[in-house]
Amino acid sequence: MKKVYQKLGLLFALVVMVMSLGACSNSSSKKNVLADDKKSNTITWGVKADTKLFGLMDVKDNQIKGFEVDLAKAMTKQILGKDGKARFLQVTSQTRMPLLRNGNIDAIMATMTITPEREKQVDFTRSYFDAGQAILVKQNSKVKSVKSLNKKGAVILGVVGSNSVQNIKKFASKAKVLQLTDYSQALTALKSGQGDALTTDNGILYGMSVENPGYVVRGGAFTKEPYGIAVDQGQTGLKNAMNKALTKVEKSGQYNKLIYKWFGHVKGFDLKEAYRQ
Amino acid sequence: MISIFQNYGGLLLQGFGQTLICSIIALFFALVIGSGFAILEVMPNKLIHGLAKAYIELFRNIPLLVITMFFYVVIPMYIAKISGFAAGTIGLTLYSSAFIAETVRSGIQSVDPGQMEGARANGLSFWQAMRYIVLPQAFKYVLPPLGNQFINLIKNSSVLAFVAGMDLMYQGNVIASDSLRSMATYLCIGLLYLIITLPLSYYMRYLEKKLAA
After folding, report:
1. What is the DSSP letter of B160?
2. How much is the pLDDT for A27?
3. Which residues from A are below 8 Å from B180, CB to CB?
4. How many CB atoms lie under 10 A from the CB of residue B61?
5. Burial A87-98 (b: 16+ CB within 10 A, else e)
6. Which of A13, A190, A212, B38 is the least buried, fewest Cβ under 10 Å from its Cβ?
7. What is the count of structural domains for chain B?
8. How high is the pLDDT of residue B22?
9. Cα atoms in the Cβ-side hemisphere of radius 13 Å centred on A195
């Protein structure tokens, strides 16, 4: 009899666990994020901290710095006023969606491409940066473009959860794709010869080639990747406020200043294409 | 959760297989290497004892992830090209072998020294006495902690995800980011790990009871 109770107890514990997990997944979706943010005078942004030029942790002062961080600060001031505070939380491609849905962050600005699948899960603003997928290779590599990777034995490195690992299968279907946890890991793997090329959006790759002179972006962009700011589904107020703020930042010329600040010195980057009126 | 199994069954199965293979390989070699170093550590020769101790302390006190990254990044740069799966399995084996060595050593030392002395007095060599008299008793003592180490090893195999070892955790990350349903995915992954660890845990308990009788 004792054994039966033990087993029942175990089963009960399991059921409670599963149910509590299920419960917390959809508890936070009903509130109005924009109103809450105005009350606390703070917007919490999920940004990348491993991506040079967009969002990178500066180890000297423990601040995340980059184009997205600066743009988020400018937009926060547009939405909340001059004293509005922007709080930044580090996210990865994998953690950004769960963190947004459970309310840890109000919006994602983390090199996130607007795709139809993602639009089923979150609401996007209009694009704030137009990237395109490309490949990064060693300077002396024989790989000329993504086409030369479309063969058996080729290994392409990417980051798990990024849109580019899905896309690359269309352009180099015969190659093996390894998905690493973040960009610095993927770059380390490329350097140690675990793959022939690293693929992701060109903006990110340019940042890597700035830091690592032996590596170059080859063959140009082969897809269009418009980056959007993601908010939780149903937060239409916040979405509209963000779209408005983005327009204001663009019109005031602040946007172009930020583009110049972060991409002005990058070799091969077309500033004119990125500028907005 | 069911839809995750339906849509990504192939990936989950592949990950499950890789985790199982990695665990079995690592378990076997960790047990062999660990027992070897345990015996070396209790040998009277000071130099051998010192070397065995150094090995155990080295791998016991470095995080598994660091060992694995070392094999994934540093070894291919200078010595030989090895895949993420191999790097992860080697790292897991060395890391676990240190813990198993410590466990087995405590077992050997808990066997009454009179057993060894008696065996030697009857004409057995050190290795014979070890093999036939001391080790069988030692393993009986350490079966429960050894079972713990085995379960830890299987769970630690999730380190393969960090070096693209295609294991269960890696596929979990891939599925979670593709389906955008992290909660259900990781619940599935947890369930699949249970399928490996629970039977092992029960088997170890059964073995314990059987040997105790």
Report:
1. G
2. 45
3. 97, 117-118, 120-121
4. 8
5. ebbbbbbbbbbb
6. A13
7. 1
8. 96
9. 27
